[in-house]
Design goal:
heterodimer, A: about 325 residues, mainly alpha, MetI-like fold, 2 domains, disordered N terminus, B: about 300 residues, 15 helices
Chain lengths: ~325, ~300
């Protein structure tokens, strides 16, 4: 096979061009065979399955997928369901808080670690280890810590601080903050690593120039370093953002959507309707909305990164 | 990859700059330093507290846990809760503990890691050295596709695996992990192979070596570092997976994360928090071991993973 490829390639160069079909299929044949899993993944999973889901979200599929077109009926029902609306509100509220806090904490920690401190690698190891753990482990540990009777609240009350209250996990108004504490614990170290890489990529000369000009350090960070880290920042926003839209395991482990439906998220709604609610159409419509959300994040980014020529920094 | 390079590349440069300016003897306890270290220590406590609580609780007896001080060290540390979590903790009526889940996770993680890395390595090699018409387009869609929420593709994949007759088996989970690991791993290998000198490939080509021979005899021996990064990424990623395991593996093949969640969240009767925490520690042990052994390589892995797209 390899020999064929060689001959085909040399053949092409000496202008005895092979036919169209053989060029498509035979030229470079071993590479095409080797890339078959990738081609199948792209065509069947990423393109095929996505189109299938979007298409069937416009049908009245219930227990099994049915090819009966009903227009936007599933979406109308979706947005008339309080559980879905709660899920979306939660995702937006949690998502904004999580995004802002992850970026801010990640950046601050990276700046502090970048101050030529001692024990740098120890601090880095401590900050990143939660990222190696699964969301299930993360959720279950924090569930135990936030246990109202035996966790942090109970302990501090037993120690004499009677008024101490940390029952967020059982409080519908505060449960999102409970999720946030666990989510930040898991993800901020990763953001710190990204930011640190960005900070270390800034030329030392710029710092020297700023110092010569007498610009205060905080000003240098805000006006010079952060704009220079645009690439890292955008990457971080895209990764954190698409992680937030996927948020599922953590909710299942920490609260399972409770109390009541106060910590439901779209990914969980979709999952439940697909696999235990017996209403596939609703699940598919929800999934399509999730896809739309990701596209809203992705398209401006893709445009900024690859669209405008010469704007890449 | 460029990011990885800056991490490892610029660290010595900055320290070199410090030395060049000459050592200035400074007092250690300046106000600035006190602020820096107290913030860092505060956050370190936030990161370490759950690990401490998890381990300490798992070594206590239930009466001690009910006494209600999660800070306290166990009076008489014992591994009874660990033994129970491993061998006889219940999920509903099934009381086999976590051990079947552990072995399922092993059976899922090892083949998934090997298959996904091999396929991605071949992809990266083909994308750099054996470009064919459309290969770059497939690659672009692959990377873009890695941002699609899994829920979007989940149901059709269930139907496909059901049609293939592998739904609810280990094969299905392995295929799914291979598919969804492909974007990031392919990117990793593609960038790595792009950084190798092309002359080697060309020389082998002139000598008449073909696709597979160059791959196995020239490319693979040179790509050990990137294999280590990929290995860390995949072992921790697949071990920590919950969604694919719960959907595709089938009840008897549930990975450890799924069984852990079932033990803790759908247990009947009075919850045994010490057993729960022992089970949680046990599940976290594999990725934590990988993390602490691999050290810098893990950082390289996540940094490389970060520049996808």
């Amino acid at each position: 096979m390899a020999d064929t490829a060689v001959r085909m390639e040399t053949g092409e160069r000496t202008s005895t061009r092979p036919g169209f079909l053989s060029r498509i299929f035979l030229h470079n044949l071993p590479a095409k065979i080797a890339a078959l899993p990738m081609v199948l993944t792209v065509l069947v999973v990423f393109v095929g399955c996505t189109i299938w889901t979007v298409y069937y979200s416009f049908t009245n599929s219930r227990l099994l997928p049915r090819n009966e077109f009903v227009g936007v009926e599933q979406y109308e029902r979706l947005f008339a369901t309080s559980r879905w609306n709660v899920s979306i509100t939660n995702l937006i509220a949690y998502g904004l808080m999580s995004l802002v806090f992850t970026l801010v904490i990640g950046f601050i920690l990276a700046v502090l670690i970048d101050q030529k401190i001692r024990f740098e690698s120890a601090f880095r190891t401590i900050m990143l280890y939660p990222f190696a753990l699964s969301f299930i482990v993360t959720g279950l540990v924090w569930q135990w810590i936030m246990n109202p009777t035996l966790g942090l609240q109970g302990t501090l009350r037993n120690m004499g601080w009677e008024g101490f209250s940390f029952d967020w996990i059982a409080n519908p108004k505060m449960v999102l903050f409970a999720l946030l504490i666990a989510g930040l614990w898991h993800g901020t170290g990763f953001c710190m690593v990204l930011m640190l890489a960005g900070l270390r990529g800034v030329d030392e000369e710029i710092w020297k120039a700023a110092r010569v000009d007498g610009i205060p350090t905080w000003r240098t960070y805000v006006s010079i370093v952060i704009p220079m880290m645009r690439g890292v920042m955008v990457t971080a926003v895209v990764i954190i953002g698409s992680g937030i839209v996927r948020l599922y395991d953590l909710v299942v482990a920490l609260t399972n959507g409770g109390p009541g439906i106060s910590s439901e998220v779209p990914a969980k709604y979709v999952f439940n309707y697909m696999f235990s609610g017996g209403n596939i159409g609703q699940g598919l419509a929800g999934a399509t909305m999730m896809l739309l959300t990701v596209l809203i994040i992705m398209i401006p980014w893709a445009y900024l990164e690859y669209g405008g020529k010469g704007r890449r920094s | 990859m460029s990011q990885t390079a800056t991490i490892s590349g610029s660290a010595p440069a900055t320290s070199g700059a410090v030395e060049a300016r000459g050592p200035k003897p400074k007092p250690f306890f300046t106000p600035r330093k006190i602020i820096i270290y107290s913030v860092l220590v505060f956050f370190s406590l936030y990161y370490l507290f759950p690990l401490y609580v998890m381990v300490v609780t798992s070594l206590k007896t239930m009466p001690e846990v009910r006494f209600g001080n999660i800070f306290a060290l166990p009076q008489a540390p014992n591994f009874d809760a660990w033994v129970k979590a491993w061998t006889s903790a219940c999920t509903g009526l099934n009381c086999q503990g976590l051990s079947p889940g552990f072995w399922n996770s092993v059976k899922i993680t090892i083949p998934s890691t090997i298959v996904s890395i091999f396929i991605a390595a071949v992809n990266g090699y083909a994308l750099i050295n054996w470009r064919f018409k459309g290969s770059e387009i497939f690659f672009a869609i692959l990377i873009f596709g890695s941002f699609i929420p899994y829920q979007v593709m989940l149901y059709p994949l269930v139907m496909i695996t059901r049609d293939l007759g592998i739904f609810g088996t280990l094969q299905a989970v392995i295929i799914i992990h291979t598919v969804f690991g492909m974007p990031i791993l392919t990117l990793l290998f593609r960038n790595y192979f792009a950084s190798l000198p092309q002359e080697l490939f060309k020389a082998a080509r002139v000598d008449g070596a073909g696709f597979w021979r160059i791959f196995f005899e020239i490319m693979l021996p040179m790509s050990l570092p990137i294999f280590v990064v990929a290995l860390i990424l995949q072992i921790t990623g697949i071990w920590n997976d919950f969604l694919f395991g719960v959907v595709f593996a089938g009840t008897q093949n549930y990975p450890m994360t799924v069984q852990l969640n079932n033990i803790v969240n759908s247990a009947q009767g009075t919850p045994e928090y010490n057993v729960n925490m022992a089970a949680t520690v046990l599940t976290g042990l594999v990725p934590l071991t990988v993390y602490f052994i691999s050290g810098k390589w893990f950082v390289r892995g996540v940094a490389a993973g970060a520049v996808k797209g």
